Amino acid sequence: MTATSTDHRPDAAATLPVGAILSVQDVDKTFTLHLQGRQRIPVLAGLTFDVPRGSCVVLGGESGAGKSTVMKMVYGSYGAGRGRILLDRGTAERPGAVLDLATAQPREVLAARRETMGYVSQFLRAVPRVPALDVVAEPLVERGTARETAREKAGEMLERLSIPERLWTLPPATFSGGEQQRVNIARGFLAERPLLLLDEPTASLDARNRAVVIDLIRERLDRGVGMLAIFHDHDVRDAVSDAIVDVRAFTPGGAA
Amino acid sequence: MSGSLPLLSVANAGHAYGATFGCRGVDFDLWPGEVLAIVGESGSGKSTLLGMLSQRLSVDEGEIRYRQGKELVDLTALSERDVRRLWRTEWGFVHQHAVDGLRMHVSAGGNIGEPLMANGARHFGDIRRQAEEWLARVEIPLDRIDDAPATFSGGMRQRLQIARNLVFGPRLVFMDEPTSGLDVSVQARLLDLIRSLVADLGLSVIIVTHDLAVARLISHRTLVMKDGAVIESGLTDRVLDDPQAAYTQLLVSSILQG
Q1: How many beta-carbon pairs under 8 angstroms link A with B?
Q2: What's the rounded Cα separation, in Å, for the pair B49 and B219?
Q3: Nearest CA of chain B to the CA of A59: how many Å?
Q4: Please, which residues have CB within 8 angstroms of residue B69's CB and are 6 or more apart in sequence?
Q5: What residues does A226 pair with on adjacent strands?
Q6: Do residues A161 and B226 lie in contact, with contact meaning Cβ atoms separated by under 8 Å?
Q7: What is the pLDDT of residue B180?
Q8: Which of A47, A146, A154, B134 lies in disulfide reach of A136, CB 3.0 to 4.6 Å?
């Protein structure tokens, strides 16, 4: 009884809508809690939406509606019970390549994270001793950028987010919540990936830094990056959202 | 991507102690640059699996193939001499107890230089220079180069063992609970070191651990073992954040949240 899915669907390419970087189609998610008498908790049913390139799609619904679950399924930290999560993996070398994240192999998901989708979460999962500059530069280094070049770019990004230079060589674990979040944002935005997942990236920022993040988001959108976002903050949401997907519409037995 | 080969390919493999299998029905591929964690409680078969993968225990069922050049060869078909060559040039093994992986009464420099000499290095100055380089990489003060590891702390011994295993540029490194038994702060430092070395050198690693936090910090993929079988496998963050098997849910729910 192995719980890995090995099913691979080569026909996925046929159904990714034109212009979409991501297409979520008829996805269900049910948690089975074996420790609570195998209780089954259906969280999402029939979840369907697209993220067009250059657009910011915001997930709406009160907390507990399943917004973070959606994010985690797209990123691959949660499995999807049914349906398709199609990601455009097309490049000059492999035009038209599409990956179904719902059935992808672990190393395909890892490659997609490296090259195609970035995740900016609310909290930095800090590695104990790595300096902030390297935390931010890491995604570029992973993609083959020379370490020195990556560090230079990381420094520019940290500067933009007003992290003082004296902090760059320190591990972010010791930073304040707001500083950690900005390090996280710098890391997520530095490597230019075609899809960005933003999970409340501005939750603990002051007005000035919020404005910087809004600028960053707009710049990336102009360059065609697609975004799927959860924003607590109405100002930020109103400033950048192109469409809102109300997750409650896909909550089984909820207010449809 | 599709044209490349895994480094190690395991199909339905098992090892038997007499009539009972210590591990059985194991299937996975390991790709270059990947870190695979094998987790489970003691007695789950994870050390048996590691022993079988590293050719210390026999493959009694199924097969294990390893990439040599452009093809996968059956490991059990290799001669003892070929296996020794793999240990000298391509494989490393970091033991839980440094005593099992180091020569305790040979100097630190000698411990690092020995694998180089086994690979044909003869120039003393070069060997010494490389030993110094590796001591620096694993954060052991240079002035300890002539001291024997018997005089080192637990964390330092473990870092030296890592240097000894990586100095000759292996492709695949097996690690058996490399951080357990160390103080928490020493553990974090060692994990961090392993993590950065593995990334810089592009190593493939198979690490056995009972500690899910270790798996989360350094592995890409995780196999969960129970009663000699792999009961769940996948991306490490998926196995830990959305565990499917009842036993994995129990393991994950037993972690203290920090």
Answers
A1: 72
A2: 17
A3: 21
A4: none
A5: A195
A6: no
A7: 87
A8: A154
